[in-house]
Amino acid sequence: MNAGGADSTLHTAFQVLVALFAWAALVAVAVCLFRTLWEFLGRGVRAVWHGLGPWEAGRLDPRLPGAVGAEPAQPAYWWRQSWADAASAGRDGMRTLWRAFPDPWLDRTVRNLFRGRRPRGRWVRVPLGRFLLVTLIAPGTAAGALTGAVLATLLLGWALLVFALLLGVVWAGWAVSVPLLRGAERTWALLRGLRVTCPHPGCYAPVALALHPCPGCPARHAELRPGRYGALWHLCGCGRRLPATRLTGRDRLAALCPHCEQTLPEAVATTRVVHTPLVGGTSSGKTMLMAAMVEGLHAWAREGELRVAYASGADQRAHTGVHQQLNQADWAHATTGGPPRALMLTVSRGRRRRLLYLYDPMGESVSEAARVRAQRYLAHADGVVLVADVLADPAVRGRLGPVDAERAERARPSAQGPRTTYERLTGELAALTGRRRRLPVAAVVTKRDVLDQLTSLPRPGARISDWLGDIGLGALVRALGHDFRTARYWAVSAHAATGTGPLQSEQLRAAEPVLWLLAASGLRTGPLTGQAGGGARRVPWPRRRPDDGGEGGYSPA
């Protein structure tokens, strides 16, 4: 019994000792687990945080290829850089975490414990202490460090997965905003009728997206719109931030034609353009008529009906040069030099504004069908001003007496009559635009001051279309009414509207054809009424009528 009791006591003592050893091992594992878990997570998170660069805006990242295409801009951060940063940050975090597991934990701490040393390498002199380190604390520390590394990896991986999902949501939001912003800009342009076209000779190309030079460097941006380089802003290679939408101010940047790289007017991106070519033979009075039209628009502006401004300094200088010729010689030199540059004016009434392109081509440009076909700006025409020098028509010249014939000769009649000009224009215009029957045409009889002096012909009256029929040009009137959406007629003395001592009433009349064509584009809120000359003048608006042969200038509206 005594022997049995002694065995039982030894067995109990052994169990207690084993339990103490187990609890000591578990405590070692737990302490090491929490400590390593905190340390590994801290190192991993710090590595992820420092790997989310670059923090300097515009700095090139060696992890990514160079700029996409020839665009001198950095791709937007959300486009690729965010994913590169997220991937490298996650990779660096995991690598840092597992690099801390073998060193210092396995290679130094656990190895010292198995050798009976403290974690920092100092010997434990007590034999029982060394025994406990080797048998309990060292295995517990190794197991705790491994468990802490595994748990830290799981927690960090879960956090990175959530971060990747959030990043995907942000990326999708920016990616969806690109087509939405583009669609909004396109819809806005369609609603306002914006069709940007280059006004420079030899180009006349439609401009879907202008070329914008960077204000801070010589770079030129051809993709300054919402896209992979940014939804609202683009970052130039020089580090300057450029607006990519009208909302953020892209319209305030200088704009160039992407085809000929010449300057576009400032208003071209926000204002509807109305292309108006003046078509007539050599010496028909086109240049003087265009000068009279510009003076007339300014006369309407002085009446308080409109606001008129030159689109650029070059346009003002061009008109000033013609005006000086008229002041010096009472007539303008014939247009030469190949395809014309459009004279551009902004015409506003109320909140509505139009950018008016006036083309004054050489008279020889309509002398042959092939030359008409080469006038590519006609493809963009919103209306046509047919400049009719009736003194150039053989049938009209045949009706003049000797005195009137001499007067007509001094007026330098065109070498090509209005019927011939129209016949060569109309077929090619249909081929160029494909919408001739939807265009309005303003037929303007020039040199009215000379026509009023002729006794062999009736004087132009209230209905210019009837007067044209009376002098033998009724076929031209019928053709215009048949081939175009609507036609209206004026008789103007450009000489009386320009040069020294111009008549304001004639200036107002000279601008009426242009105002009529502008009204067809929607620039009207009511009839314009000028008070020059002691009586009211009213500009009729374009209407399609079955018997369309409406008059302008002399109609008692």
Give a description of the structure.
A hairpin with a 4-residue loop joins strand 4 (233-236) and strand 5. This protein has helices at residues 2-50, 77-114, 127-192, 286-302, 313-329, 369-373, 394-398, 402-410, 418-433, 448-451, 464-470, 474-483, 494-497, 504-520, and strands spanning 73-74, 212-213, 220-221, 233-236, 241-243, 272-279, 307-310, 343-349, 352-359, 384-388, 440-445, 486-491, 529-530, 537-538, 550-551. The protein starts with a helix and ends in a 6-residue tail after the last strand. It has 14 helices and 15 strands. The strands form 4 sheets. It has an 8-stranded mixed sheet, sandwiched between helices. Strands 1-4-5 form a 3-stranded antiparallel sheet, with no helix packed on it. A two-stranded antiparallel sheet has the order 2-3.
Task: Give the C-alpha Rg.
Answer: 43 Å
CATH topology of the largest domain: Rossmann fold
Poorly predicted sequence stretches spanning 5 or more consecutive residues: 531-536, 544-549, 553-557
- Give me the count of strands: 15
CATH level 1 class label of the largest domain: Alpha Beta
β content, as a range?
A: 5-15%
Structural class: alpha/beta
Largest sheet: 8 strands, mixed
Helix fraction by DSSP (H/I, runs of at least 4): 40-55%
**Secondary-structure element sequence?**
HEHHEEEEEHEHEEHEHHHEHHHEHHEEE
Name the strands of the widest sheet in spatial order. 7-8-9-6-10-11-12-15
Can you tell me the overall shape?
rod-shaped
First-last Cα distance: 141 Å
CATH architecture of the largest domain: 3-Layer(aba) Sandwich
